[in-house]
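Action item from last meeting closed. Structure (285 res):
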């Protein structure tokens, strides 16, 4: 993240990054947004979202662990879960404010220590249509990712109006709203005719899980898309140590690559395209 992004995320608990998706990507994703298949099985346009060049470095900064030996050759964070909202139309009453440290039993957290961000769960919300300041959509109470005191309960529901401290955050199609799940947030009632379709990608540190519905790397082996299986470890620590000791599922994942990691000294092209020489510890050649 650049200095501006670090300041904004630290202060407000969210960040809007424009133009993450090209118009072609937006069109492609819109056309399959209503599919009943699980999002990551809808085609490579969906799986590519896991390792977007402008987003992955931000996720590394927010939830990654640069101390892991695989970083940054493969992500040092986990994909926790992915879903799509397509049901938001005029009259949608919104989703009450939620999030916060207490509601998750402490698993969703924000911390900054010794120059590094630590987050329990980070959301990348990709808008597929423009959203407008008064039209509804993502909202939050900026700064509440650091709250020590719970929000007054009567602010939670929008049934009787929206408390003035709640900020609506609008974005254009293809923009990403990145926020900490611990931030008090929700969806404002939708008041306009155009639809809202939003993809939510949620990332966690390598050692924690929120959804409990782990991706199984073996289900993705059939796809040839580069750079993806790396994102499916149950726990990113799995890629520790020499590749000879890589777990069976990880080995299966990489069997689709054009070079296959087997033994010391062998050259391997990582899913991110770097040339890696396999030694007792990872290093690029
Ligand atoms: O509408 C949004 O962008 C927020 C959605 C949300 O809070 C959720 O899916 O839990």
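Sequence:
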């Amino acid at each position: 993240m650049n200095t501006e992004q670090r300041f904004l995320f630290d202060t407000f608990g969210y960040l809007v990054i424009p133009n993450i998706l090209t118009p072609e990507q937006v069109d492609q994703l819109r056309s399959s947004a209503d599919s009943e298949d699980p999002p990551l099985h809808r085609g490579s346009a969906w799986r590519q979202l896991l390792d977007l060049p402008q987003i992955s470095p931000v996720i590394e900064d927010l939830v990654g662990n640069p101390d892991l030996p695989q970083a940054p050759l493969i992500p040092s964070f986990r994909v926790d879960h992915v879903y799509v909202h397509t049901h938001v139309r005029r009259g949608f009453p919104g989703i009450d404010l939620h999030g916060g440290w207490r509601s998750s039993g402490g698993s969703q957290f924000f911390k900054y220590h010794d120059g590094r961000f630590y987050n329990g769960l980070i959301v990348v919300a990709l808008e597929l249509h423009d959203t407008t300041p008064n039209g509804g959509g993502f909202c939050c109470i900026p700064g509440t990712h650091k709250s020590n005191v719970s929000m007054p309960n009567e602010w939670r529901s929008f049934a009787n109006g929206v408390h003035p401290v709640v900020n609506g955050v609008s974005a254009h199609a293809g923009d990403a709203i990145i926020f900490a799940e611990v931030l008090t947030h929700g969806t404002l009632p939708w008041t306009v005719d155009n639809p809202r379709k939003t993809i939510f990608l949620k990332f966690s540190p390598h050692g924690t899980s929120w959804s409990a519905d782990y991706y199984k790397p073996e289900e993705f082996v059939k796809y040839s898309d580069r750079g993806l299986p790396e994102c499916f470890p149950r726990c990113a620590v799995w890629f520790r140590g020499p590749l000879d000791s890589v777990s069976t599922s990880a080995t299966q994942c990489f069997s689709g690559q054009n070079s296959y990691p087997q033994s010391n000294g062998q050259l391997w092209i990582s899913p991110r395209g770097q040339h890696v020489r396999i030694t007792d510890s990872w290093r690029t050649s």
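Note appended to the action item: The two ends are 26 Å apart (CA to CA).
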